[in-house]
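Hi R.,

Here's the input for the zinc ion complex you asked about:
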Amino acid sequence: MAIEIMAVGGYSEVGRNMTAIKVDDEVIICDMGVHLENYISLTEDEDLVNIHPDELIAHNACPNIELLGEWKEKVKAIIPTHAHLDHIGAIPFLARSFECPIICTPFTAALLNSLITDAKIPFKNKIKVLNVNSSIKISNSLTMEFVSITHSTPQTVVAVLHTPYGKIVYANDFKLDNYPVLGTKPNLARLEEIGNEGDVVCLVMDSLYAHEARKMPSESVARAMLKDVLLGTYCEGKAVICTTFSSHIARLKSMVDYGKRMGRKVIFLGRSLHKYIAAAESVGLVKFSEQAEIVKYSSKVKSRLNKMMREGIDKYLIICTGHQGEPQAGLYKMAHGMFDFKRGDHVVFSSSVIPSPTNQRNRHVIEEKLTSLGVRIFKDIHVSGHAAREDHRDMIEMLKPKHIVPSHSEPDRMAALADLAYDLGYHERFIHLLKNGSILKFNGA
Ligand SMILES: [Zn+2]
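And here is the predicted structure with zinc ion in place:
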């Protein structure tokens, strides 16, 4: 047995996820993300711009690839599992340090291409597309299989690395949603089959909500919450403004659908929404351009808002960025002069507050401002895209891994997943709480 796993990023914080798996003399990298808050503190915006990787690493905005040492020369593929920036955002900066392709699903590839183009960063790695529920041979001894899973952005996969010594399963991020609003269901049959094959050496698993003893509700529940707040409140003559994650295409779809049911024209404002929608349309996931208007350039937003106000604001459902209260985003700018909010206008936060001091402060500021303007606030119209404890239990019971590595969080959440593994009868020598820089070796498995 010659498998080693190195925790490179995302094992001591939420963000800049990266894991390296070494099998004999070959290395596969799963995810290469940014730490968004640290990145924004450096650039004042989440757009990727051409910054030297050393500076990003020094600010803990990117994974520290120097930890790889001599593994660096052995990397055969970089596998981003989905399109969130904390999983793909460092690829434009760091991938050129490796002589290998990027392998990802079509939506992730489309978004990655758009990030690279926007950032104007020279990029040499080949981007290979692999569909969900498909496999690709990486070398004579390694094959990568993408098993369809659900999350809060389309075409997320569980990456299953087939090695001569068994399988390494990387489930980071995921939830088990049998009633998704968009895209394919989790391929539970294949996960069970993999478990029954009995050779899963290790499961690396998203532990963000391992401390919550419940099953994470389906995205269809968030859709029902949106329906309730959009179709079930009195908003005649009032502005209705929704904000959510630009990458959450399923949530945007629900907004488009209910905007039409309200008899309002749906209008997306801002570059970030345009970027993710364009990626989703380019791979045939949605056709929002036919159903809604998308104002791409921020310089055009103010004049478009003025036109809406002249025509009658209750003819529109506005979808904008800024659900965390970010000062550079659409909602903040609207609340600070770009839009003439009237008493009784509606703002729907289809998100939760990402718990960091900056976000909590920003959200407090925007909510205070909106309240002072007499705006009705509907918040937490949301369910998370991350598994909770009962989903983790299902995943472990389906896959029957020999070893478990909690990931994607701070130590307390990872410890909560370890507790679950103890409950399921795992001995502590098969549960591994890693930190950035730790290397786990499997001896004889
Ligand atoms: Zn994610």
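One thing worth noting: Residues 82, 84, 87, 151, 173 surround zinc ion (CB under 6 Å).

Cheers,
M.
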